[in-house]
Amino acid sequence: MDSLAGPKCGSCSAPLSAEWNVCRRCGMVQRQPSAAAEERELLHEWNMVASWAVGARGPDADLQAVVRNGLLPNDPELLVEEAERCLRYLREGQSQFQRRLEALLTRADLLALKEPVLARRAEVLRKAAQELAARDRRETWGCLGGMLAGVGLIAGLIALGISRCG
Ligand SMILES: [Zn+2]
Questions:
Q1: What is d(CA 84, CA 86) in angstroms, rounded to the nearest whole number?
Q2: Where are the alpha helices (DSSP H) in 23-115?
Q3: Distance 3 CA to ligand 1 centre (A)
Q4: Cα of 87 from ligand 1 centre, angstroms
């Protein structure tokens, strides 16, 4: 079988297998979905590729590219599902999903002009994202504080040592 002769990804030119609509290296979706059912199908594939990339189980999958090329659905239900999935990844420390979450919520805001229910759900998700970001900041500062205290302790001990010697 000659993989060079087969179809290639339009984005990263990795060979594509016939039964896949999403590039397993860069996550680029190879066709535009026309209906919500199709969006769901493509997102299901993309999420599989993304989970492989997160777990570094894919064939040289590039997580950053996969997340960047992630499909943004037009269906409000799918949009919320995808945003929730991003939040879960962020809670696991996969910060690459921050941008995707923002993009999804921005689209939700646009669609919410016609769908008031979506506006409320997007707001809940945005709040959760903000709380998560605030928690991360606290942890970073907590860690930094601990380091500074450690440095202070060492400096104190050295000073004590010097004063004893002197
Ligand atoms: Zn690709």
A1: 5
A2: 36-54, 63-68, 76-91, 97-112
A3: 14
A4: 25
